[in-house]
Amino acid sequence: MQQLRGFLRFLSDNLGWLIGSLLLAFAVWYAALSARDPIEQRRLVGQVPIELIYDEGLIVANRPLSAAQVTVRGLQSVFETLETRQVKVIADLSGLAPRDEPYSVELRGLLAPEVRGAAVIAVQPSRINVQLARRAEQLKRISVRFEQEPPIGYTVTAQPAQGEVLAVGAAERVAQIAEVQAKVTVQNQRGTFTVTLPLSAVDAQGRPIADVTLTPAEVAVTVEVQQRSDVTELAVEPRLKGDLPNGYIRVNQTWSPRRVFVRGTQRAIEAMNGVIFTEPIDLSGRTETFTQLVRLSVPEGVTLLEPRDIAVTIEIEAVQGSREFTGIPVQVQGIDTADFAVTVQPERVNVIVRGAQVALEKLTSDDIRIFVSLSGLSAGVHQVTLQASVTREGFSSENVVIPNNVAEVSITARNPTPTFTPTP
Fold this sequence. Notes:
By secondary structure, this protein is mostly beta strands. It has helices at 2-36, 76-81, 171-176, 266-271, 357-360; strands at residues 39-43, 48-53, 58-60, 67-75, 87-92, 103-111, 118-124, 127-130, 132-146, 154-160, 164-170, 179-184, 191-198, 200-202, 212-215, 218-227, 232-237, 240-241, 248-256, 259-264, 275-277, 281-282, 290-294, 302-304, 310-318, 320-333, 340-345, 348-356, 368-373, 380-385, 387-390, 400-401, 406-413. The model is unreliable at 24-34 (pLDDT under 50). The chain has 5 domains: 1-36; 42-130, RNA Polymerase Alpha Subunit, Chain A, domain 2 (Beta Complex); 136-227, RNA Polymerase Alpha Subunit, Chain A, domain 2 (Beta Complex); 232-318, YbbR-like domain (RNA Polymerase Alpha Subunit, Chain A, domain 2); 320-413, RNA Polymerase Alpha Subunit, Chain A, domain 2 (Beta Complex).
């Protein structure tokens, strides 16, 4: 008993030293550890998906933020192996009832259990707004809608591979769905074809309803575009009369539309042999390309399904030709002939002019000018390129070809400056 009292007295007298020694040992251990593996704080690269937790039978009715930025504090070694999949961001709405106004929910960041020596210290943003509603699902009818009217003279039918689709979402929005549409285009389509189309939910006014999930999200639709049995498709053919003036040719003709639909007696339609002509288009006196609206010549017993004029464009060009002119004098320009005597060899040249044949027939040698430009040249002998111009409308220098287009020009001063010779 005496020994126990002595030990307790010793422990009491030395407790402060004992605690101080333990604290000192821990500080030494921590300092050594920190030196090898210091603590860091980092914002993770990329964003972490936000996981929403809410009661069964509810659904998120708005579109809250789906990812957040996370800041982690921990040992340096942790960051060497830390992956985004080991980080969670949770918005917990457990126990909250559906309502029209969204809840402001705090975001909480967590690390996976295997990640030791680190913790999430910040999530940005720290809160998000989430609206809860009662979840509903319902089968809705699929309707195929055409994005344009069927072609004239054709009927179009469409059959989806399935008649209904499952709509899932907030009960209020699911109830607003009047139909689920698949929109198809039949432009330039003939015969039967199958196409896969996306589905969209709309209300009674045809307005899209958002935040509703459709399963499946698309459907295969078989479309049949067939010609109506009571109409016949005919090719349009322009009818021309008259002749173009001499020197002009018709190089092309286009028209639109190129096909039309008619209804009538079988005998009258068979007599047309698959072609319907326009009223005559007169080419007499035409010298330029023109476009003309003309009616179709519809025989008795036949009716156009859609009466319309035909736009016909006739492209007309002048016949191109060439003509040679001989002995055209070479003129001088760009130098004062009062101060300089100029001789040109050759003095006359032959040229070839190309252009519209009808214009060439009216062209004379007086309309053509061949010249040499001597601007900036001094006395002496020079090789100068011949140039051309045409005064008649419809021609330019580009229409003129000079087979030998280099002339030798000799320039002599008429009053040369006397040379001063000093007396010896």
